[in-house]
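Q: Okay, next protein. This is DHA1 family inner membrane transport protein from Saccharopolyspora antimicrobica. I've checked the sequence twice, so it should be correct. Can you predict the 3D structure?
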Amino acid sequence: MSTPQATLSQGRTNLVLAALFFGVFVMGCAELLVVGMLDLIATDLEVSIPTAGTLVTAYALGLAIGGPVLTALTIKLARRAVLAGALVVFILANLAPVLITDYLVFLVARGIDGAAQGLFVAVAFGVGTSIVPPERAGRAISVIISGVAVSAALGVPLGTAIGQTLGWRGSFIAIVVLSAIVLIITSALVPSALSTGGGGVAGQAKYAFAPRVLAVLVLNLVVFTSLYTALTYIVPFLQEVTGITGAMISVFLFAFGLANAVGSFSGGWFADKNAGGTLIGGTAGTAVALLVLYFVGANPVLVALMMLVWGLFAFIMVPALQLRVVSLAGPGGELAQSLPASAINVGVALGPIIGGAALSSSTSAPMIGGMIIALVGTVVALATSYLKPPVVAEATGSAGVVPEPTTEHA
């Protein structure tokens, strides 16, 4: 099944992808910057730090639940209009805590922020894959989704630095300004002719929630549960097992973040060549890296090396996960664009719980917990690699459908 393509020059295509990357990066920073300023926010709003931590939860829930809902509600609207609308809502929601000093308003605004991000990212994937040839869809996805990886590496330290200098509200003002810039360049660059999926919500949902799609969404969940089972408790591991303290912990984490970004960018090429194989190799590589990390935990050099390998394998899968979900959804690809983020956020929530239970055994145990879950992921990846997109008449195709390369056996 073909994907309707917008006829753009290579230069214009690159500019659109760069704009979408920048938008996802800014939104990713907005999601994470609160983590580095919880103490400042808690003190200023006179709440406890654990209470302030629910701002992170509210954002994740907004993204996981609100993103798909808004995507469904806007399924028939022009993509450029939807992107612009999501950015306007995002800007207003980030202005709310700056202008209104009420914690409940802040909490609600964070949920709205997350929902707007979920909508923006889903539509951005649809735009990105519709302006490139089908055989380059994975690479388009990798450019856009790399905004998340780069924000993960830079969002917390940048937000913390700005918050310490200008106050936590200064960080939100910076996000508002950057979001306004994204709004301008996105509105200028994204073609107005691009429309979203046909068939309405019911027609899209029939394919978007098919068992084959749900199976790959389960793989999304497993991959990120594995990641956060270990990653949530990596600092205690580095401190108590490896003997790393002070600024060196930040160096190790920054290196891990860079590996994430490299994995995201390069993962698009692998996804285009063989998405199913990429997922098998990525989950297996993650399991091996975590197992080795467990055994070499006392050696800082080997720990640094294994963290790079772990970060690379963990994020090299992300474009393939997105591509598999969309391709297996067939005509429901437009709605399906928003579903991986929901599955990922469930994994992000489950990982710390499982890792915390393992931590009661030993500081190294979360690494083994993550490894075991990654092994489960390898089995799921192998099983799902044989799934094939639905065979649907060409006339029923929608803009969100992305066929996978013919070189892949799935």
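A: Here is a summary of the prediction. The chain has 16 helices and no strands. Residues 247-295 form the longest helix (49 residues).
Q: Noted. On to the next one.
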